[in-house]
Amino acid sequence: MKTPLHLALMLSAAMLLPAAPAPAATPASAGTTQAPSDVYYEIFVRSWYDSDGDGTGDLNGVTAKLDYLKSLGVDGIWLMPINPSPSYHGYDITDYEAINPQYGTMADFERLLREAHQRGIKVVLDLVINHTSDESPWFKAAQDPHSPYRHWYEWATPTTDLKAISATGGPLWHATPDGDHYLGVFVAQMPDLDYDTPAVRAEMIKVGRFWLDKGVDGFRLDAAQHIYDDRETDADNPVALKKNLAWWREFHQGIDVSNPHAWLVGEVARQNPDDLTPWMGALDAVFDFPLAIRLVDSAKEERDRDIGATLERMSAAYRAAAHGRYDNAPFLSNHDQERVMSQLANNPEHMRTAAAMLLTLPGHPFIYYGEELGMRGEKPDPQLREPMRWYRAGKGPGETTWEGWSAGDGPAVTVEAQQADPASLLNWYRMLIQWRKDIPALRDGVLHNWRDADLQVAAWELDDPHGDVLVLHNLSGKPQTVKLPAQRFRSLLKHSRPGTAVADGRLQLPAYGSAILH
């Protein structure tokens, strides 16, 4: 007799299965085993893997699971802040050139770098330099009006409007115990540095070079737009934008002394894609927040929300602004947002189509840890950053325990359950990432919109010297027949569902299926 618990577990497992089994990833030939995928993976170290049994993830835990990441197919990892900090999340730093002792030592980090690089995995660090912690020695010293650090922060004057609203919607000014007021865009515990002070600019370039000299490959720039975008009224202020861009160009030039190939990807949380264009000349890439919304909504609504047309228009604008040095950074969600599976109401087919669209876009797609398992998570923030799910039983070597699980995910939403199951979401991600290794156009192609009359099919063409391809995704639960352009795209390179076929100039695309043609 099946109890309610048994039925719940069976249902949880079934939700992760496709309507028809996805084919296994095509093995790369001996000559292409080192082909890149250009996929990055975001890791919250505290939640990832615990190497010493204290319940908190650590750097040795990241090293221990590099082979898992390699098996997934990623080429790079973004580590959320690893510096000393009084908070669990680490976005308020007290020492920029040290390691959070809860995560390990500098020797542990250096070992992680070596082991990652041996596997061909790049390491990008979260660089949080818009603000420090209010427990930073710099800020403590700055509370003395005679300290040289006083000018490292911005202080209110008698004419300051202390009721002003910050760019993030909260109070802009915060009081010290002595009655002074300092500027902080986010919260009182995060006082903003003053980048009009030359010593601050020089110090942060020094910090960047410190980590690059250790072998780091680049930085994810936290709150990149808020170096000068401080006030609610700064959102569309051309002066603030100009100063922001000038600083990041200066920073890039400064750190290039240590590594001219250092990669900078910025967090510029704007919802209008046109607002991202100016940033393409100052940084190497920015996270595409507007695209993330389109991808998730298209999967959820089973209707193409002009993904190809928007990407073609914006790619051309970005490339022009960057004078050819343009690199996209698409993603579905990150540590500040509701997890994708939660946004998609736990619909496994919608999750698969969202992943398929993401991983067939050029550039460097980012995956948030656990996304490949279908982990769910909703606000508040700690519940977006809960422990990685390794074992069916919810406990085992390396499982972190600093925070519990709130989303109600069952044993099926674990690496252990999905690892050997060819029909699992994890192996769906592996298949898609392998496609990127096998087809250069998926990484480097120039995107052009391609529109069939059916809005339930999202499609785009990728032009590449190695061969142009046509990418198509059936967003709906019904098979679709797509008429192909005359004399082009007659060969099926990859497909995700059985029953995909090309005949008589038409593509038969099964429900929720994806296909790559050339």
From TrEMBL:
Pfam family, one: Alpha-amylase
InterPro entries xref list: Alpha_amylase, GH, GH13_cat_dom, Glyco_hydro_b, O16G_dom_2, SusG-like_C
Keyword Signal among record annotations: yes
MF GO annotations: hydrolase activity
EC number: 3.2.1.1
Keyword Coiled coil recorded: no
Domain of life: Bacteria
Top-level EC class as recorded in UniProt: hydrolase
Signal peptide start-end: 1-24
Alphabetic keyword roster: Carbohydrate metabolism, Glycosidase, Hydrolase, Signal
Catalytic activity: Endohydrolysis of (1->4)-alpha-D-glucosidic linkages in polysaccharides containing three or more (1->4)-alpha-linked D-glucose units
Domain Glycosyl hydrolase family 13 catalytic, first and last residues per copy: 42-409
Family: Belongs to the glycosyl hydrolase 13 family.
Protein name: Alpha-amylase
Species in which this protein is naturally found: Rhodanobacter humi
